[in-house]
Design brief:
The complex is a heterodimer of chains A (about 550) and B (about 325). Chain A has about 550 residues and is mainly α. In chain A, about 65% of the residues lie in helices and about 0% in strands. Chain A contains 18 helices and 2 strands. Chain A has a two-stranded antiparallel sheet. The longest helix of chain A is centred in the N-terminal third of the chain and has 36 residues. Chain B folds into 2 domains: about 170 residues, Immunoglobulin-like, CATH 2.60.40; about 100 residues, Cytochrome Bc1 Complex, Chain D, domain 2. In chain B, a hairpin with a 5-residue loop joins strand 11 and strand 12. The radius of gyration of chain B is 28 Å and the shape is elongated. Chain B starts with about 20 loop residues before the first helix and ends with a helix. The chains are: A mainly alpha (about 550), B alpha+beta (about 325). At the A-B interface, helix 4, helix 10, helix 11, helix 12 and helix 13 of A face helix 1, helix 2, strand 7 and strand 9 of B. The structure holds copper (II) ion (CU). Copper (II) ion binds next to loops of chain B.
């Protein structure tokens, strides 16, 4: 054991890691290394998240008092539109796949890179290009259509709709590029011995996500082009004043944007499946069910878009079909939760920070999922649609679900990405503060919405709505503090964190056989394929400060 | 307190008062889903907490081997939720069918939504900005929009329906409780979306406040009030105030303060005098002469406004001279 250890050390000393193997901004911006692209994505989406977060904070502060505080109706409309558009298009859709997925996916396959490294870089550049359009939007009068661009409002709005639509169109291509890359990589670059059902569940999640990215995003692209066309020529596609159909736009829009919800949540579920298993040192319960349910969710997710339109005037039959299909997606999601729970049974459960996020995810996602039942149910949806109940529901899914899972994944792979451990205590406190803040911010919105407070109102009359809004604002500030705490803890670790061992958590997937941080080519030798959820031969090795395999397999994994 | 069932007349932790026949059904289903959700949430979180405490990591203790798959268990936890959601779907669907199938012979009120006001037209042609309905009568809204999509939302009736330009949508309800309730626009429609709020007044069957009485009195305000006062009321009812202020500040449209008799410059150059014919044309064909410096966003009132109303409006506008 000790000899292999020194050999690894020698090898690492001889070969610099991917962060220091070359220098200068060109070596980053023109890199073909999936790890560097992942890190650049991480920085870029974090910056977007910060911007979107500032908009959210401004919204909530405005709503602290019922009347006007510092923005008027138009200002508020800009704020909620930009908050939504930035968070959805720039942060949450690329979030897990492009930042964490890019870094981890090839490593999990024991591969050197994704199948098409140049396309991967192009995806990042497209993202930047799309983001620049959003900067244009900000600089040229903003956007006030809501991130949903509903027609005919978006046809006649005086704001920078065309810039925004072009930006979202380009971002769509960035997402498609990532999707194609992941599909091909998973099909073609799995190492010998890693059959589909010996793949880590994270890869199943990425695969299902990639399918949606590739199949659904083009529809968004077409829809946005048609919208631009309508605005420029007045052709009368969506605008009833020229003979168009505004509901058609909603169908097109949600045909993409509902599956997009699964682009957001499937990767989150995939991360949680890894975390729950690793931190209870138990093989994941019902592996096949989880894998199949990812694919089932991805496919069924294409058939439920009409549940955004139960009050739009679509036919009763359409309403019934979409409601039934919506409920059918709830079952695979429920099964996943039960599987995670069963995985904990008789485990050896560590409450390290990534696991805290996984548990927080289960708590929040459960609330998000269960409140979805009220909305899939036709007659209750009629009352709850377009109220704060919806706002609460989708924030529980997208923030409570996706953001918390993203943070869990970030804390899990951080040592691998940057070779440093962060403060266990600091990160746990920041997680807790964010969790509490999130609930204080969003839970009050459920009763608020059921009482009848419509969404997208900058102004409210009802005396008894005030306390809910104030609570939500306080919660938002708390959530902001928690998130800031996370950033501080993580950045501090880069300066003076302890050096991370190759396998700090005792995980059995392949990325942990690479050094922390990995070398430019990831592995010195292609590592042996193990069962991704068999922790039996992983033991804590005090000399390394991390886990190592006790079986002979280690010998083949190093020199 | 959180889980008490809604009682007619007063709001609960979750809901405003139930003021229409269907409201109780919606609430009952809501509470059913709520109980199921709370039950599963507590169940799962309790088990999760027990596991996390009971099986917390201990140095040097390896987890016991336990099955990674159990067919019976997996079938059970797939079938039970399926049965529950089938029930939710079915009950929600039948409730929805009722909501979306207006009875024949319902009392009909026309609804026109425009940025950012509501117009309700009663069978006798009278219009108001506040919705008035009789208690205990099946009432149907036939709705359309002048501009973008709006949505008719009365929380106390648990009713919501989008209002679209270029087509008609319908909503119906039977009010059960005399009183005044909020009516919101629930589909985002721009600058003053959050001010596109009005009230529904549910009138008793008989007595001085009855719907019949109200409609009779309110309909002939033009004959009762002086032309100036009548014109002011038309100005309010027709939502002119959404765009035209009376205090000199210009909004989407120019203010009416001191406008009468002045010379106006049109967008394409020529000048016109703000007189009777100009006002009449502006109301009926707003796009014919567009004032310089403004967008042509004024909706036409052709076919919606009576001549008497225009005459009264003119008297009112004259009265605003300095
Ligand atoms: Cu509206």
């Amino acid at each position: 054991m000790s000899t292999t250890h020194t050999q690894t050390a020698v090898a690492t000393a001889a070969e610099p890691d991917y962060l220091s193997c070359s220098k200068g901004w060109k070596s980053w911006l023109l890199t073909l290394d999936h790890k560097r692209i992942g890190v650049m994505y991480l920085i870029a989406i974090s910056a977007s998240f910060f911007l979107g977060g500032l908009f959210a904070l401004a919204l909530r502060l405005e709503l602290f008092h019922p009347g006007k505080d510092f923005v008027d109706g138009d200002g508020y409309n800009q704020l909620f539109t930009l908050h939504g558009a930035v968070m959805v298009f720039l942060f949450i859709i690329p979030g897990i796949p492009a930042a964490l997925g890019n870094f981890v996916l090839p490593l999990m396959l024991g591969a050197k890179d994704v199948a098409f490294p140049r396309m991967n870089l192009a995806s990042f550049w497209l993202w930047l290009f799309g983001a620049i359009f959003f900067v244009f939007v900000l600089a040229s009068g903003g956007l006030d259509t809501g991130w949903t661009f509903y027609t005919p409002y978006s046809v006649e709005a005086q704001t920078a709709v065309i810039f925004a639509a072009t930006g979202a169109f380009i971002l769509g291509f960035s997402s498609i590029f990532t999707g194609i890359n992941f599909i091909v990589t998973i099909h073609k670059m799995r190492p010998a011995g890693m059959t589909w059902f010996r793949m880590p569940l994270f890869l199943w999640g990425m695969y299902a996500t990639a399918i949606i990215q590739v199949l659904a995003t083009p529809v968004l692209g077409i829809t946005l082009l048609l919208l631009i066309f309508e605005r420029v020529t007045g052709a009368g596609i969506f605008d009833p004043h020229n003979g168009g159909d505004p509901i058609l736009f909603q169908h097109f829009f949600w045909f993409y944007s509902h599956p997009a919800v699964y682009i957001m949540i499937l990767p989150a579920m995939a991360i949680v499946s890894e975390l729950v298993s690793v931190f209870s040192r138990k093989p994941i319960f019902g592996y096949k069910m989880i894998a199949y349910s990812s694919v089932a969710i991805a496919l069924l997710g294409f058939l439920v878009w009409g549940h955004h339109m139960f009050t739009s005037g679509q036919s009763k039959l359409a309403g019934a079909i979409f409601s039934a299909l919506t409920f059918s997606v709830s079952i695979p999601s429920a099964i996943k939760v039960f599987n995670w729970l069963a995985t904990l049974y008789k485990g050896s459960i560590s409450l390290a920070t990534p696991m805290l996020y996984a548990l927080a995810f289960i708590f929040l996602f459960l609330i998000g999922g269960l409140t979805g039942l009220f909305l899939g149910t036709l007659s209750t949806d009629v009352h709850l649609h377009d109220t704060y109940f919806i706002v609460a529901h989708f924030h529980y899914v997208m923030v409570g679900g996706t953001l918390f899972a993203f943070l869990g994944g970030l804390h899990y792979w951080w040592p691998k990405m940057f070779g440093r451990m962060y403060s266990a205590r600091g990160s746990a406190i920041a997680c807790l503060v964010s969790f509490v803040g999130f609930n204080v911010a969003f839970f009050p919105m459920f009763p608020l919405g059921a009482k009848g407070m419509p969404r997208r109102y900058w102004y409210y009359l009802e005396e008894d709505f005030i306390s809910y809004h104030q609570l939500a604002t306080v919660g938002t500030v708390l959530l902001g503090c928690g998130l800031l705490g996370i950033v501080v803890v993580l950045l501090k670790s880069l300066k003076n964190g302890e050096r991370a061992p190759a396998n700090p958590w005792g995980a059995a997937t392949m990325e942990w056989e690479a050094a922390s941080p990995p070398i430019h080519h990831n592995f010195h030798h292609t590592p042996a394929v193990h069962d991704p959820y068999d922790f039996g031969d992983l033991r804590f090795d005090p000399a390394q400060g991390g886990y190592a395999r006790t079986s002979n397999a280690t010998a083949t994994a190093t020199h | 307190m959180m889980l008490t069932l809604a009682q007619a007349g007063e709001g609960t932790f979750w809901f405003p008062a139930q003021a229409a026949e269907n409201a109780a059904k919606v609430d009952d289903l809501f509470y059913f889903v709520l109980y199921v959700s709370v039950f599963f949430f507590l169940l799962i979180m309790t088990i999760l907490s027990i596991f996390v405490i009971r099986y917390r990591r201990r140095e040097g203790v390896e987890p016991e081997k336990s099955p990674s798959h159990n067919t019976v268990l997996e079938i059970v936890w797939s079938v039970i939720p399926t049965a529950l959601v089938v029930y939710m779907f079915y009950t929600g669907f039948t409730g929805y069918l009722e909501k979306r199938t207006p009875p024949t012979g319902a009392y009909e009120i026309g609804v026109t939504a425009q940025k950012w006001s509501w117009n309700f037209t009663y069978p006798n042609g009278h219009t108001t900005n506040v919705l008035h309905v009789p208690v205990g009568v099946e009432t149907q809204m036939v709705m359309t929009s002048e501009d973008v999509i709006h949505s008719f939302f009365v929380p106390a009736f648990r009713e919501k329906m989008d209002v679209l330009p270029g087509r008609y949508t319908k909503a119906w309800f039977t009010p059960t409780l005399v009183g005044t309730y909020d009516l919101f626009c629930a589909e985002y429609c721009g600058t003053a979306h959050s001010e596109m709020i009005t009230k529904v007044v549910v009138h008793p069957q008989d007595g001085p406040d009855s719907f019949e009485n109200w409609l009779r009195e309110d309909s002939d305000f033009l004959t009762k009030l002086s032309p100036v006062e009548g014109g002011k009321k038309v100005y309010q009812l027709r939502g002119c105030g959404q765009c035209h202020s009376l205090d000199g500040t210009s909004g989407n449209g120019p203010s009416f303060k001191g406008a009468w008799g002045t010379e106006r410059t049109l967008a394409d150059g020529p000048k016109v005098v703000f007189d009777e014919n100009y006002v009449r044309e502006s109301i009926l064909m707003p796009k014919a002469k567009v004032l310089a410096g403004y967008e042509p966003v004024m909706p036409t009132f052709q076919g919606r406004i009576k001549d008497e109303e225009i005459t009264a409006l003119i008297a009112f506008l004259k009265s605003l001279q300095q």
